[in-house]
Amino acid sequence: MKKRLALLALACVLAFGIGLVAQDDASHMSQSLYIGGQSLQNNPELRLYGWASSAFHYGRIYVDTSGNLNIVAPSGKVLNMPLPVFSSLTASKPVFTDASKALTSTGTMPVNQGGTNLTSYAIGDLIYASAATTLSKLADVATGSYLASGGVTTAPAWATLNQAAVAGLTTASSPEFAGATLTGFSGFVQATAGVLSAAAIADGDLPAALTGKTYNGLATSAVITPATGTGVTVNKSGTLAQQLYKVTVTYQALAAAGLTADKVIATVPAKTRIVAIYADTTTPYTGGGVTAASIIVGNAAGGAQYVATHDVLSGAVTKGLADADMGTELAAAALIQNAAVVNWTTAIDVYVRLTTVTSNTDQLTAGSTTYYIITEQL
């Protein structure tokens, strides 16, 4: 039997192509692998042989003349399928399927596959959704424009900063400053009725358009009828020049390796009247073995021109509410036209001096005073 099988295998090899035969002595079954056909150049096929139930059985795998792959089982059932199609791909681009489901790396990545479907851009282009499945480019425009929403379901667009382009603003809610220079406000040009129209505004001045008017119940300037006639020059038609300056000074600003410490808390310009000063100590000056602490306010280190010496260790205290609290220039008997002495040519520094007993001022661990200074500029 073995000899007949060997001879049969040899005959197959000689007649049809190349074969490989293996025999299992225990089961007397043989398997073979055969590659061949009418000739090796004509429809080559792969045959898988097996011996079972006293007979040879084999399956076939081959490519037919149409280029399809065929697999034929021993039972005669045939599986016919087209061979896979390979594309020439470029590694530097994404790979996706085309309309025929073939792999490709040419063209643009469609939006439905995570791409933009756009091939190029100009510097400054912005991408936006112009439809549910379409991305478009919004080209850059002139300097100073900003991107404005067009509303729901409407594409955005570039706009210039003016009242008409900003949704929700009206002339009643947003004044328009056409030609205004933001660095210093060198002047205003009237764009619509009711807008500032002065050509230039000096320090302390108000535009003529506001003279004598009120804003939320407050006068914007003194209502004075200017003088007229030969030899008369009106330098100011009316100015509200009084202002409040507020500053808080803590014990840390007055720390010194001594029993006294001075601090300049404000500098008042020349031709400016000091009308009132309040010293509101909200946290007493304590700690570090200090047994007493007092504060005085004047126009020089240790000066007492504005607020008289008062205790700031015992508890919170506010000075400036009574005439007895005031210094030598703000006490009622010393006032000149209801203000302290005016320095006509130079600025005045406002000093605070803290004095402690037993320990230096830098040993304090608490203390805070807020100063309110009311001035009038002439």
Describe what this molecule looks like in 3D.
The chain is mostly beta strands. Among the domains are: 81 residues, no CATH class; 135 residues, Jelly Rolls (Sandwich), CATH 2.60.120. Helices cover 4% and strands 37% of the residues. The strands form seven sheets. The protein has a six-stranded antiparallel β-sheet, covered by helices on one side. A four-stranded antiparallel β-sheet has the order 15-22-17-20, with no helix packed on it. The chain starts with a helix and ends with a strand. About 16% of the residues have low confidence.
Query: What is the N-to-C order of secondary-structure elements (H for helix, E for strand)?
Result: HEEEEEEEEEEEEEEEEEEEEEE
CATH class of the domain at 243-377: Mainly Beta
Question: Residue-averaged pLDDT, rounded?
Answer: 74
The end-to-end distance, rounded to whole angstroms, is: 134 Å
Q: Count of DSSP E strands?
A: 22
Spatial sequence of strands, sheet with the most strands:
1-2-3-4-5-6
Assign the CATH architecture of the domain at 243-377: Sandwich
Shape: elongated
Major pleated sheet: 6 strands, antiparallel
Kindly name the structural category: mainly beta
CATH topology of the domain at 243-377: Jelly Rolls
Fill in the keyword field for this structure:
elongated, four-stranded antiparallel beta sheet, single chain, 378 residues, 4% helix, 1 helix, mainly beta, six-stranded antiparallel beta sheet, Jelly Rolls
Summarize the structure.
This protein is mainly beta. The chain has one helix spanning 2-16; strands spanning 17-24, 29-36, 45-52, 55-63, 68-72, 78-82, 96-97, 103-104, 126-131, 134-138, 146-148, 157-159, 214-215, 218-219, 242-250, 260-268, 272-286, 292-298, 307-311, 317-319, 348-357, 366-377.
